[in-house]
Amino acid sequence: MIRAVSQRTLLACCACLALGILGGASGAVVLLGQEVDRLTLDVAALLDEIERLTSRITVLDAYGPTGGDHVETIEIIARGVERARPAIEQSLKSLLTHLIGEELNRVHAATVHQVLERTLTVDRQEYEVQVRYVYVTPTLRAYVDVRPLGEPDLIE
């Protein structure tokens, strides 16, 4: 019925259990690491969206219902380097924040293009920014291509 277990057998079972727990935890870290990275990028994008919408609400409140002829918000849409995209977009957006509230007829797309066309450093990596399009509307939009410095051109 009840079988006596030696101390050596009990220690071997405990060692196998501990080894299984450590192996399972290591496997979970490896499998979930990429998911955590993706979620971190999603959180950064959502925080950026909250900041953008908050500034837009502030501008709309300041100008009231006739605010259609001023820059209300700035959107930077970057493509090319997904991992550094939120930091690059935020850095480029900070270069243009002084345009919020500016009259549309005083904002020139060529000037915005020259401001955005640059080399940025994010996490000790240099990136080259190439501007594709700039739309001057109440929501100033700039579409840019980003590539690590030293790679071949994205635009042919």
Tell me the total number of β-strands. 4
Percent range for helical residues? 40-55%
SS content category: alpha+beta
Number of domains: 1
Average pLDDT, all residues: 86
What's the helix count?
3
Strand order of the largest sheet: 1-4-3-2
Distance between the termini: 81 Å
User: What is the H/E order?
Assistant: HEHHEEE
DSSP strand content:
15-25%
Largest sheet features: 4 strands, mixed
From the spread of the alpha carbons, the general shape counts as elongated
Low-confidence stretches at least 5 residues in length (pLDDT < 50)? none
Rg calculated over all Cα atoms: 26 Å
Describe the protein in words.
The chain is an alpha+beta fold and 156 residues long. The chain has one domain. The protein contains three helices and four strands, in the order αβααβββ. β3 and β4 form a beta hairpin. The termini are far apart.
